């Protein structure tokens, strides 16, 4: 029996076997709603010019200039706003001498802008270009100025002009690779508060002529450390000194009646001979290295003497006036460096700070050789005066060797108001390690019932204290 499909004609069979077309979806455009437009007037443009000037002064210079295309209301605003300009932001590589187009950009900004200049940073311009920009900045009340005349191998010999030394509006000045005139006026920088000198020779009479200077940062290199740095200033309150020189450096605080903070770079203090003659208000001092060549505090001199034998370490001599040791009674915070066997000088050092409250110790791990340590050395000192005031102790590089145990057990037993001892360990800290050290420190015999021991794993390999590192660098 033939099927029904077979009985159909070939034409009808072809029509019926044709596949049914599949409908193709058609994308229907969706109307995107427009963002709502603010109802009412432009309130920002209605602000007074003084407020808009303050806002524009906080923007990057490129963004501040672009606001001039918004409307006729905004067109003249940036030209009168306080200007903050750093030419390194225009250079693809600020370590190299600025190209011509950078000089043109700075020139056009100076030519268009007519308002006051808040801050200006110029890097590696020629002396004539420097003079041109600096003179314009002085005329428009510059407050912060940064001049870089040398970087690596690139350098220009730029001598500071006289009109800059007499600028009344300047409060902060940073110089790198510049020079001062040989003959200074009786009074310079009348309102300067902060001065930063990097690779700049400090004239002997500079500080005495800056009657308002409060903060001084000194960074010197090899050629600048040959002569002693003599500090005499009636207004100076903070001094930071850092030297990259491999030669011995001498820093003398001759007369600084208002100096409150003296910070010396950790790499600097090793080769620095520090002499403090008159600083009655000094409260923060560091770093002091027990291995430094010489340290003089008033009439007390702690001096290192090299021994001819290479087996034994150098010895130290402490000389003082017959009546008493000179003391810096105002110092509350002290940071010192310790290198193993040189701990013998620490008692003499700490005697000079009878009212010490915070002691930070930077210890080199692995440099303590037990054969040079006199057992019971600390107990022989008795109760030193500073133990009546000491509140916190921080030890970075704590390893738990005999040197650490001798020192910390002494502080625990005799520290009458000691509240916290922070130990930064580079090794793994286990519960057994902590309990062992507490027992070795004689924690049960502590003089202060409020004393707390805090152990931290110091994962950073840097040999700096973060606190002191931030303040110095």
From TrEMBL:
Phylogenetic classification of the source organism: Eukaryota, Viridiplantae, Streptophyta, Embryophyta, Tracheophyta
Database matches in SUPFAM superfamilies: F-box domain, RNI-like
Protein name: F-box/RNI-like/FBD-like domains-containing protein
Pfam families, per database record: F-box, FBD, LRR_At5g56370
Annotated organism of origin: Rhynchospora pubera
Region (Disordered): 1-40
UniProt domain F-box: residue ranges: 41-93
PANTHER family associated with the record: F-BOX DOMAIN-CONTAINING PROTEIN (PTHR32141:SF179), PTHR32141
